[in-house]
Amino acid sequence: MDVNLVLRSTRVITPEGTRPASIAVSGGTIAAVLPYDAEVPAGARLEDVGDDVVLPGLVDTHVHVNDPGRTEWEGFWTATRAAAAGGITTLLDMPLNSLPPTTTVEHLRVKQEVARSKAHIDVGFWGGALPDNVKDLRPLHDAGVFGFKCFLSPSGVEEFPELDQEQLANSLAEISGFDGLMIVHAEDPHHLAAAPQRSGGAYADFLASRPRDAENTAIENLINQARRLNARVHVLHLSSADALPAIAAAKAEGVKVTVESCPHFLTLTAEEIPDGATEFKCCPPIREASNQDALWQGLADGTIDCIVSDHSPSTADLKTPDFASAWGGISSLQLGLPAIWTEARRRGHSLEDVVRWMSEGPARLAGLTRKGAIEAGRDADFAVLAPDATFTVDPADLQHRNRITAYAGKTLSGVVTSTWLRGERIADRGTLAEPSGRLLERNN
Ligand SMILES: [Zn+2]
């Protein structure tokens, strides 16, 4: 075992808790987590980060990179730089908003080719489930996608149509045949169609157009389908906390359902969104403070499995001041860790909780057995955080392509001082290394 790097800190977050430790790295893999004052092997370099906390690199399973096809919105170069700057070492790319969408093996190969030379962190791909591509799901699975995304209501782009309940059942039946995973944008189209649709800049009108009932009903239907077909399903970007009791009950019953929420639902509230501020628009929407409290309860009791960004940028001109017509999507890839840490600590949670939600949880969802924890045998991926340092969000400091953010001007706790990918420092206080990320395929 040739150890080439020892990363030392008084606070290393391991699955057994936080402790002073020296992490021995060999060939990009964690060889051992040694006592703090362990002797540095001959030939190894010591990096001592002092009292900064070493976390397992974050895993973000919900990123819209939009490359190729809508690269004026985002791209692999800029998205993965933003991720690296924010302590994320693995991302999974959503199958839509790029052209082509990731709905056939041929399209997957196009996307992999584009990503290969631009990836500053490790990148994997979700496939897409459309009304007419059931025959493509098995080949995509065999080609290494991590699962399949579908919508139950219009996606916002015409090349990625939604599934009705019968089409969902057909796709779930196909996927459960190879124990695949379906990840679902769960808003019920009938409830959306029945909601009042008013254009203009008033956030209250937009909120009323995407009612909680739309999420609650879609999630209940999804749970019923998962139970009936013994399929694995995952609820994307949960906003309505009203759905938590049904999800908790389904889990207790043994239905294979998991759920994620996002930093914007957990740190921003409808009450604070100025009219016309469509950088806050996403679907489902950011809801009231009382709803946010209930989401945090869902995290605390384990009903919510993970927190991921749903980074979904666009160009500034698509963020018109009219909530009805503006592009829906929040750009926060680089800010998820400090945003969540700031709110988590205020609510009495620890950094270990944050690691469970943002690293270990998403890694487990995706079956990424080499990611998500600091222990021997895993990839030497780390986020080093100064948890008590604060900064004020300046869009000019962001690495994603269109520097639009719902967090502008906010003061957050937690500065990512460096990020490490397989034992190499890829970000050093905003200075990014050349791309060294790998393309990942599902490994089970
Ligand atoms: Zn999304």
Automatic annotation (TrEMBL):
Domain of life: Bacteria
GO cellular component: cytoplasm
GO terms assigned for molecular function: allantoinase activity; cobalt ion binding; zinc ion binding
E.C. number: 3.5.2.5
The protein's enzyme class: hydrolase
SUPFAM superfamilies: Composite domain of metallo-dependent hydrolases, Metallo-dependent hydrolases
Keywords: Hydrolase, Metal-binding, Purine metabolism, Zinc
Pfam families: Amidohydro_1
Cofactor field: Zn(2+)
GO biological process, one term: allantoin catabolic process
Pathway(s) annotated for this protein in UniProt: Nitrogen metabolism; (S)-allantoin degradation; allantoate from (S)-allantoin: step 1/1
Entry's family note: Belongs to the metallo-dependent hydrolases superfamily. Allantoinase family.
Subunit structure comment from the entry: Homotetramer.
Protein name: allantoinase
Organism for this UniProt entry: Streptomyces nymphaeiformis
Taxonomy of the source species: Bacteria, Bacillati, Actinomycetota, Actinomycetes, Kitasatosporales
